[in-house]
Design brief:
Helices cover about 70% and strands about 0% of the residues. With about 150 residues, it is mainly α. The longest helix has 24 residues.
Protein backbone atom coordinates (compact mmCIF):
# COMPACT_ATOMS: atom_id res chain seq x y z
CA UNK A 1 0.00 0.00 0.00
CA UNK A 2 1.33 3.42 -0.95
CA UNK A 3 1.26 6.04 1.79
CA UNK A 4 0.09 9.11 -0.11
CA UNK A 5 -0.32 12.42 1.68
CA UNK A 6 -3.96 13.45 1.50
CA UNK A 7 -4.88 16.80 0.03
CA UNK A 8 -6.55 19.06 2.57
CA UNK A 9 -9.45 20.05 0.36
CA UNK A 10 -10.33 23.01 2.57
CA UNK A 11 -6.89 24.48 2.02
CA UNK A 12 -6.68 23.43 -1.62
CA UNK A 13 -9.93 25.24 -2.39
CA UNK A 14 -10.42 27.77 0.42
CA UNK A 15 -13.35 29.62 -1.15
CA UNK A 16 -15.75 26.65 -0.99
CA UNK A 17 -14.57 25.89 2.55
CA UNK A 18 -15.19 29.49 3.63
CA UNK A 19 -18.64 29.24 2.03
CA UNK A 20 -19.31 26.09 4.06
CA UNK A 21 -18.21 27.91 7.23
CA UNK A 22 -20.55 30.81 6.38
CA UNK A 23 -23.39 28.36 5.73
CA UNK A 24 -22.69 26.74 9.08
CA UNK A 25 -22.94 30.11 10.82
CA UNK A 26 -26.28 30.79 9.11
CA UNK A 27 -27.57 27.37 10.15
CA UNK A 28 -26.48 27.97 13.76
CA UNK A 29 -28.43 31.26 13.71
CA UNK A 30 -31.48 29.49 12.26
CA UNK A 31 -31.28 26.81 14.95
CA UNK A 32 -31.14 29.45 17.68
CA UNK A 33 -34.03 31.38 16.11
CA UNK A 34 -36.03 28.14 15.99
CA UNK A 35 -35.51 27.72 19.72
CA UNK A 36 -33.20 24.72 19.61
CA UNK A 37 -31.05 24.42 22.73
CA UNK A 38 -27.34 25.03 21.94
CA UNK A 39 -26.49 21.83 23.84
CA UNK A 40 -28.85 19.87 21.59
CA UNK A 41 -27.20 21.44 18.54
CA UNK A 42 -23.83 20.11 19.74
CA UNK A 43 -25.33 16.68 20.43
CA UNK A 44 -26.70 16.56 16.88
CA UNK A 45 -23.24 17.37 15.54
CA UNK A 46 -21.70 14.68 17.73
CA UNK A 47 -24.29 12.08 16.71
CA UNK A 48 -23.81 12.83 13.02
CA UNK A 49 -20.05 12.50 13.44
CA UNK A 50 -20.45 9.21 15.35
CA UNK A 51 -22.49 7.74 12.51
CA UNK A 52 -19.99 8.95 9.91
CA UNK A 53 -16.95 7.91 11.95
CA UNK A 54 -15.36 11.36 11.87
CA UNK A 55 -12.88 11.41 14.74
CA UNK A 56 -11.81 15.01 14.11
CA UNK A 57 -15.36 16.38 14.37
CA UNK A 58 -16.20 14.07 17.28
CA UNK A 59 -13.33 15.44 19.32
CA UNK A 60 -14.10 19.06 18.43
CA UNK A 61 -17.84 18.94 19.12
CA UNK A 62 -17.49 16.84 22.26
CA UNK A 63 -15.12 19.47 23.62
CA UNK A 64 -17.50 22.24 22.52
CA UNK A 65 -20.45 20.51 24.20
CA UNK A 66 -18.56 20.06 27.44
CA UNK A 67 -17.44 23.73 27.43
CA UNK A 68 -21.09 24.75 26.99
CA UNK A 69 -22.05 22.67 30.02
CA UNK A 70 -23.33 19.43 28.49
CA UNK A 71 -23.62 16.50 30.89
CA UNK A 72 -20.83 13.98 30.11
CA UNK A 73 -23.31 11.15 30.74
CA UNK A 74 -25.53 12.34 27.88
CA UNK A 75 -22.53 12.35 25.56
CA UNK A 76 -21.49 8.89 26.76
CA UNK A 77 -24.89 7.34 26.04
CA UNK A 78 -25.61 9.29 22.86
CA UNK A 79 -25.31 6.28 20.51
CA UNK A 80 -28.02 4.59 22.62
CA UNK A 81 -30.15 7.71 23.21
CA UNK A 82 -33.42 5.86 22.53
CA UNK A 83 -32.73 3.47 25.41
CA UNK A 84 -32.16 6.14 28.07
CA UNK A 85 -34.10 8.68 30.06
CA UNK A 86 -31.52 11.41 29.51
CA UNK A 87 -33.24 13.05 26.55
CA UNK A 88 -36.38 15.15 26.23
CA UNK A 89 -39.03 14.60 23.58
CA UNK A 90 -37.50 17.45 21.59
CA UNK A 91 -34.04 15.91 21.87
CA UNK A 92 -35.37 12.52 20.76
CA UNK A 93 -37.25 13.93 17.78
CA UNK A 94 -34.19 15.89 16.64
CA UNK A 95 -31.82 12.96 17.14
CA UNK A 96 -34.11 10.59 15.25
CA UNK A 97 -34.46 12.99 12.33
CA UNK A 98 -30.70 13.68 12.30
CA UNK A 99 -29.94 9.96 12.20
CA UNK A 100 -32.41 9.46 9.37
CA UNK A 101 -30.95 12.31 7.33
CA UNK A 102 -27.39 11.14 7.97
CA UNK A 103 -28.31 7.61 6.86
CA UNK A 104 -29.90 8.52 3.53
CA UNK A 105 -27.52 6.15 1.75
CA UNK A 106 -29.48 3.35 3.46
CA UNK A 107 -32.79 4.74 2.19
CA UNK A 108 -34.82 7.91 2.15
CA UNK A 109 -35.85 9.80 5.27
CA UNK A 110 -38.81 7.61 6.14
CA UNK A 111 -42.30 8.96 6.63
CA UNK A 112 -42.24 7.33 10.07
CA UNK A 113 -39.11 9.24 11.12
CA UNK A 114 -40.36 12.50 9.62
CA UNK A 115 -43.81 12.22 11.22
CA UNK A 116 -42.24 11.38 14.59
CA UNK A 117 -40.21 14.59 14.35
CA UNK A 118 -43.20 16.62 13.14
CA UNK A 119 -45.24 15.44 16.12
CA UNK A 120 -42.82 17.24 18.46
CA UNK A 121 -40.89 19.84 16.47
CA UNK A 122 -42.17 22.96 14.74
CA UNK A 123 -41.64 23.40 11.01
CA UNK A 124 -38.87 25.89 11.82
CA UNK A 125 -37.18 23.35 14.10
CA UNK A 126 -37.48 20.54 11.55
CA UNK A 127 -35.85 22.75 8.94
CA UNK A 128 -33.09 23.79 11.35
CA UNK A 129 -32.36 20.17 12.31
CA UNK A 130 -32.27 19.18 8.64
CA UNK A 131 -29.84 22.00 7.84
CA UNK A 132 -27.68 21.12 10.86
CA UNK A 133 -27.46 17.51 9.70
CA UNK A 134 -26.73 18.58 6.13
CA UNK A 135 -23.90 20.92 7.11
CA UNK A 136 -22.42 18.48 9.65
CA UNK A 137 -22.43 15.69 7.08
CA UNK A 138 -20.58 18.03 4.70
CA UNK A 139 -17.96 18.88 7.33
CA UNK A 140 -17.53 15.18 8.16
CA UNK A 141 -16.86 14.42 4.52
CA UNK A 142 -14.30 17.23 4.23
CA UNK A 143 -12.45 16.04 7.35
CA UNK A 144 -12.61 12.34 6.47
CA UNK A 145 -11.55 12.84 2.84
CA UNK A 146 -8.65 15.07 3.90
CA UNK A 147 -7.75 12.80 6.85
CA UNK A 148 -7.67 15.64 9.34
CA UNK A 149 -5.23 14.53 12.04
CA UNK A 150 -6.47 13.48 15.46
CA UNK A 151 -3.68 12.91 17.95
CA UNK A 152 -3.68 12.50 21.69
Amino acid sequence: MIDTQRVNIGKQHPAPYKTLLALSAEVESAAAAAGLDPLLVELLKIRTSQINGCAFCLRMHTRDALKKGENPDRIAVLPAWAETGYFSDTDRAALRLTESITGVSDGQVSDEDYHAAAAVLTAEQISAVAWLATVMNAFNRVAITSRYPVRG
